[in-house]
Amino acid sequence: MTAVPANPLDRIRPDVRAMHAYVVQDATGYLKLDAMENPYSLPPDLQAALGQRLGQLALNRYPGPRYADLQAALAQHAGLPEGHALILGNGSDELISLVALACAQPRAMVLAPEPGFVMYAMSAKLQGLGYVGVPLTPDFELDEAAMLAAIAQHRPAITFLAYPNNPTATLWDEGAMQRIIDAAGAQGGLVVVDEAYQPFASRTWLDRMRAEPQRNAHVLLMRTLSKFGLAGVRLGYLIGATNLVGEIDKVRPPYNVSVLNGEAALFALEHAAVFAEQAHQLRLQRTLLVEALRAMPGIEKCWDSEANMVLVRVPDAARTFAGLRERKVLIKNVSTMHPLLANCLRLTVGTAAENAIMLQALQASL
Residue 283 and residue 286: Cα distance in Å, rounded? Predict the structure, then answer.
């Protein structure tokens, strides 16, 4: 008698089998305003120069000294504080996972405000850490009292604070941020300040790290070049006290940044003024977009934004989202992510022409 093979799926962790994979919407044929991408491409002369440079790389060799060159270039670009170090990741997502992996001890906890970036909870669960989400206020500000109480109760190994936050585009009160950071540090926890949207924000926590290095010695600040204009390159970086970053670096896979990604990032930093002007234009378009949304009948609320996205509340998010899709405009329906986001849509800030198309489609879909 032939034995019945065992089910190999039984070797997959039950919690993994119960999860849903991260789904990226197919944007073919749509105006893509769902993922906070920079809508501007490289000018043709820079495209040609980058193509020639990438074509000369030794793709038959593992990444080498250019990793250190990119570290140095990013350190100069960001203004790395004295006594701090910087490591690179394959986007911010990998860095979030590396911090969770380095802190994955028995009964360790991760804490973050909600609604927030889904990868904080996902990475915690995949690395075997507990996760606690603390709701924001109804207007998407930090609930400082609730955060402090949760830190006292759960003593998290890692507290994530997105600055600005996704999907709310909120840049939280500086005093509340520092008090929460102080409380996390007082019980020996790390704080990861996620500045993915820093090119569009009016403040950076790096200034607080420079001004009060000891008070913020347990802060790891994370950024990405995705919102800088290189979403396809997948390059993030983490800044923190040298001793802390050195420990995180131990769990980083070797050669985690390809020679193509690294060289493209170096090229972009050499032409940082081009990307700075693109961010400036997007900030201008964000102001115009918010004004138009607040004047549009049917928009129940439009929140202030410090990122390249705008959050709005409409009477029926599912119907409006479907109407936009029918009109070939793709945005993000975040209404089911958290109860506070009921009937909310997240709109990426595009070019003037893209925003005009989106606004017309939105008005027709309300």
Answer: 5
What confidence tens digit (pLDDT) does each residue in 129-183 have?
999 999 999 999 999 999 999 999 999 999 999 999 999 999 999 999 999 999 9
Tokens of 57: 């790389």
Instruction: Indicate the pTM of the whole model.
Output: 0.94
Which token pair is 253? 């896979």
Buried b (16+ CB within 10 A) or exposed e, 314-325: beebeebbebbb
**For the chain, what are the domain ranges?**
8-37+273-365, 78-268
Strand boundaries in 242-349, DSSP class E: 301-302, 309-313, 329-330, 332-333, 344-348
- At 179-208, the pLDDT tens digits run 999 999 999 999 999 999 999 999 999 999
Q: Which CATH architecture has domain 8-37+273-365?
A: Alpha-Beta Complex (3.90)
As a CATH number, domain 78-268 is 3.40.640.10
Whole-angstrom distance, CA of residue 102 vs CA of residue 128: 11
Number of H helices, E strands in the chain: 13, 13
Residue 113's closest CA among 305, 300, 344, 340? 340
Q: Are strands 190-194 and 219-224 parallel, antiparallel or unpaired?
A: parallel
5 by DSSP, 3-state: which?
Answer: coil
Instruction: Retrieve residue 169's tokens.
Output: 């585009």
Per the rule left: phi > 0, alpha: psi between -120 and 50, beta: everything else, 234 is left
